[in-house]
């Protein structure tokens, strides 16, 4: 089952990334504004004092407007720092000037927090975690990029008994009938798209 699911994930990733590559800069900016407006209104984020998030790159659904909105409200926003073993450390977002462009292994340029490193366990303080993703299905199963970094984050949260709201930002076309799942995969609670909010059960800080 594991090998078959992983092969199916790779195929679905290729399809979804091809669609994203076809988006224009205007498409991405318009979606970012809509996503920020919807996400900031989520009870899971509106009531959070600490949110773990990430800086979108390329044609990913944009997060910067949301990061700035959360920071302006006084929310403590944590951003990831990719470690050599693909685990994630965390630092604090204090505005656009607090980011550094970092090239990671020649694969891509990431925007990471420039300040103090808080350690991988810092994510345990988050009441909501914004996860990158390529798709979500009706069960809340998320398709990631395949690097495994956020699988480690989710496992760390589970081991500690932490239960933050898990939120993913997507384009409307990335709500799919089924995401191939493996035993270690965990569902998200909420998917936000430019056209709406989609819930998959009860999340901490949010409605049933």
Number of helices: 5
Supply Rg. Answer: 16 Å
Query: What is the share of helical residues?
Result: 25-40%
How are the strands of the largest sheet arranged?
A: 3-2-1-6-9-10-11
Order of helices and strands: HHHEHEEEEEEEHEEE
Mean pLDDT: 91
Largest sheet: 7 strands, mixed
| Overall strand count | 11
Strand content of the residues, in percent?
Answer: 15-25%
As residue ranges, the low-confidence spans are none
Q: What is the first-to-last residue Cα distance?
A: 32 Å
Give the helix/strand class: alpha/beta
**Shape annotation:** globular
Describe what you observe in this structure.
The chain has a seven-stranded mixed sheet with strand order 3-2-1-6-9-10-11. Strands 4-5 form a two-stranded antiparallel ribbon. The chain has a two-stranded antiparallel ribbon with strand order 7-8. It is of the alpha/beta class and 208 residues long. Helix 2 (25-40) runs parallel beside helix 4. Helix content is 29%, strand content 24%. The protein has helices spanning 2-21, 25-40, 43-46, 64-72, 149-160; strands at 50-52, 76-82, 88-93, 99-104, 108-113, 128-131, 135-136, 142-143, 165-169, 190-193, 196-199. It contains five helices and eleven strands. Helix 4 (64-72) links the parallel strand 1 and strand 2 (76-82).
List keywords for this structure.
alpha/beta; about 210 residues; 5 helices; 7-stranded mixed beta sheet; single chain
In short:
The model has no long low-confidence stretch (mean pLDDT 91). By secondary structure, the protein is an alpha/beta fold.
């Amino acid at each position: 089952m594991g090998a078959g699911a992983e092969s199916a994930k790779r195929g679905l990733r290729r399809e979804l990334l091809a669609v994203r590559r076809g988006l224009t800069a205007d498409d991405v900016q318009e979606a970012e504004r809509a996503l920020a407006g919807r996400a900031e209104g989520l009870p899971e984020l509106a009531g959070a004092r600490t949110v773990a998030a990430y800086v979108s790159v390329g044609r990913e659904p944009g997060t910067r407007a949301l990061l700035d909105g959360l920071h302006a409200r006084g929310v403590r926003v944590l951003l990831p720092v990719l470690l050599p073993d693909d685990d994630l450390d965390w630092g604090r977002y204090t505005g656009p000037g607090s980011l550094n462009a970092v090239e990671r292994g020649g694969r891509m340029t990431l925007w990471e927090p420039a300040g103090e490193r808080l350690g991988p366990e810092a994510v345990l303080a988050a009441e909501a975690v914004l996860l990158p993703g390529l798709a979500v299905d009706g069960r809340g199963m998320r398709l990631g990029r395949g690097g495994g970094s956020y699988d480690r984050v989710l496992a760390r949260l589970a081991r500690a008994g932490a239960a933050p709201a898990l939120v993913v930002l997507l384009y409307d076309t990335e709500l799919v009938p089924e995401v191939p799942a493996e035993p270690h995969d965990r569902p998200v609670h909420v998917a936000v798209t430019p056209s709406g909010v989609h819930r998959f059960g009860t999340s901490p800080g949010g409605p049933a």
